[in-house]
């Protein structure tokens, strides 16, 4: 709902939900209770994953960026700071660059190999066909069809055009004046 259409109860409900999320994320970690395997996700990480799966993170991004929802800005800021509670800025920056840098390098190598393969195929295709197209389709003598003299007709087009051959091929049709047209 737009903020103009919300009633007081809706506003209170939104605030209570944001406070609940903040309080859940505010619970301090207890290493004695979390006896998991090395590399296993902590309770905090699992809560963050559940928020992501439910779409709450997208809702928080909307609340943080929407101009009309500025009343929730401090609640959202507090939730976001609690989301990144266990990470240091250096770790986050290195993590983002490390995977992006490695993936970028891998993608670049993949694209380069694909480009080299494509160029090789293009060169092979260019070598298979002649460099210039010959417009000369051949000349054929049509035996049995007489031209103007006693000689047979010489046909200068491709054989696929032979069925549409007439003696009027290439001649300008006679123009009939308008007043004599049917």
Which helices and strands occur, and which strands form pairs?
Elements: H1 8-26, H2 43-54, H3 56-65, H4 73-83, H5 89-128, E1 140-146, E2 152-155
Antiparallel strand pairs: 1-2
Strand content: 5-15%
Unreliable residue stretches: none
Strand neighbour order, sheet with most strands? 1-2
Helical element count? 5
Shape: elongated
Would you count the extended β strands for me?
A: 2
The radius of gyration over CA amounts to 39 Å
Compressed to H and E, one letter per element, the order equals HHHHHEE
- Which structural class should the secondary elements be placed in? mainly alpha
Kindly, what is the distance between the CA atoms of the first and last residues, rounded to a whole number of angstroms?
Answer: 73 Å
Tags for this model:
single chain, 5 helices, 182 residues, two-stranded antiparallel sheet, nucleus, 2 strands, 51% helix, elongated, 6% strand, TIM protein, mainly alpha, Timeless_N
Summarize the structure.
One of its GO terms (cellular component) is replication fork protection complex. It contains 5 helices and 2 strands, in the order αααααββ. The protein has 182 residues and is mainly alpha-helical.
Report on the structure:
This is TIM protein. Keywords: Cell cycle, Nucleus. One of its GO terms (biological process) is replication fork arrest. This protein is mainly α and 182 residues long. Among the domains are: 8-28 and 41-86, no CATH class; 135-163, no CATH class. It is 51% helix and 6% strand. The protein is built from 5 helices and 2 strands, in the order αααααββ. The protein has helices at residues 8-26, 43-54, 56-65, 73-83, 89-128, and strands at residues 140-146, 152-155. Strands 1-2 form a two-stranded antiparallel sheet. Helix 1 packs parallel to helix 4 and helix 3 crosses helix 4. The longest helix has 40 residues, at 89-128. It is elongated, with a radius of gyration of 39 Å. The mean pLDDT is 81.
């Amino acid at each position: 709902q737009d903020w103009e259409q919300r009633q007081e109860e809706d506003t209170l409900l939104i605030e209570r939900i944001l406070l609940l999320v903040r309080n859940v994320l505010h619970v301090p970690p207890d290493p004695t209770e979390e006896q998991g395997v090395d590399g296993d996700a902590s309770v905090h990480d699992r809560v963050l994953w559940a928020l992501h799966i439910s779409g709450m993170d997208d809702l928080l991004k909307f609340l943080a960026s929407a101009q009309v929802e500025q009343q929730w800005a401090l609640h959202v800021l507090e939730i976001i700071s609690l989301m990144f509670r266990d990470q240091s800025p250096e770790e986050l920056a290195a993590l983002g660059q490390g995977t992006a840098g490695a993936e970028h390098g891998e993608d670049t190598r993949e694209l380069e190999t694909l480009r080299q393969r494509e160029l090789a195929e293009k060169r092979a295709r260019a070598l298979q066909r002649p460099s210039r197209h010959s417009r000369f389709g051949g000349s054929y003598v049509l035996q049995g069809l007489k031209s103007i003299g006693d000689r047979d007709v010489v046909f200068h087009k491709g054989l696929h055009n032979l069925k549409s051959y007439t003696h009027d091929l290439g001649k300008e049709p006679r123009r009939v004046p308008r007043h004599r047209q049917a």
